[in-house]
Amino acid sequence: MNAETLLNQGLAELGIDLPADARTKLLDYAALIAKWNKVYNLTAIRNADEIVTLHLLDSLTVLPHVEVDRIADIGAGAGLPGIVLAIARPDLQVHTVDTVQKKVTFMRQAKIDLGLKNLESHHVRVEHWQAETRFPAVISRAFSDMADFVRLTEHLVADSGHWLAMKGVYPHEEIAQLPPAVRLREAIALRLPGAADTHRHLIVLERS
C-alpha cells in the first residue's frame, strides 16, 4: 500500500476530514523526514509506511482533543505531533521546542518547505524557555515521566490551561506520582489505525 492510500485510510478510520492540500503537505512532510533521516538520524523509524502510521496518524489521533488556538509541543524531535497539528489546523499557532540543534534545524526547514506560517521552532531547554505569553495547552509525546513533564513546563501553562501527555499503555504509576498541584482531568483511549495491538492514551492534566 502506498503512503497516500495509507494516510487516506487512516484519516477515514479516525473520522478526520482534511482538505487535499493538507493531505499533500502531510505526505511531503513524511518524505522530508525520510530524506533527512538518511543523514541526521531524526527518528528510528525509517520505513515509509511506518512513518505514515507511527508518526503522522499517531499524531493525528490527538487532533480532535486539541481545542485551543495556541499550543507548545515540548521535546518535539522531528516535529511530532507539533508539525502535524500545524498542517492539519492552519488556525492553530504551534510552537515546537527541542534541545537538539539538528532537529530544530529540520523543523525550521520543514516550516519553509511546507509553507507553515503558524509554526515557530525553538532550540532551548524547556525549563529555560520564556514564552511571551503562556499557553492554553502544552503537549508532548517525548517525556517518559509525566511528573517531569509538568515540573519542567509549569511556567509555560496558563492558569486555566492544561497539559496533554501522549502515552502508550495507561500510565497508572505516573498518574499516582503526580504532584499535588496537578490533577487528572481526563484519560482518553486512542485507536491508532494500522496498529490494532498498539495501546495509546491521551492524558489530560490540569492544576488542582
UniProtKB/TrEMBL annotation:
- According to the UniProt entry, the coiled-coil residues are none
Q: Where in the cell is it found?
A: Cytoplasm
Catalytic activity reads: guanosine(527) in 16S rRNA + S-adenosyl-L-methionine = N(7)-methylguanosine(527) in 16S rRNA + S-adenosyl-L-homocysteine
* Keyword Repeat attributed: no
Residues holding S-adenosyl-L-methionine: 75, 80, 126-127, 141
Gene3D superfamilies (UniProt xref): Vaccinia Virus protein VP39 (3.40.50.150)
What Gene Ontology molecular-function terms does this entry list? rRNA (guanine-N7-)-methyltransferase activity
The EC number(s) this enzyme carries: 2.1.1.170
Q: Which UniProt keywords apply?
A: Cytoplasm, Methyltransferase, rRNA processing, S-adenosyl-L-methionine, Transferase
- Would the keyword Zinc-finger turn up in this protein's UniProt record? no
User: Which cellular components does GO assign to this protein?
Assistant: cytosol
Q: What does the sequence similarity comment in the record state about its family?
A: Belongs to the methyltransferase superfamily. RNA methyltransferase RsmG family.
**Record's function text:** Specifically methylates the N7 position of guanine in position 527 of 16S rRNA.
- PANTHER family xrefs: S-ADENOSYL-L-METHIONINE-DEPENDENT METHYLTRANSFERASES SUPERFAMILY PROTEIN
Q: What is this protein called?
A: Ribosomal RNA small subunit methyltransferase G
Q: Which organism is it from?
A: Niveibacterium umoris
| Gene name for this UniProt entry | rsmG
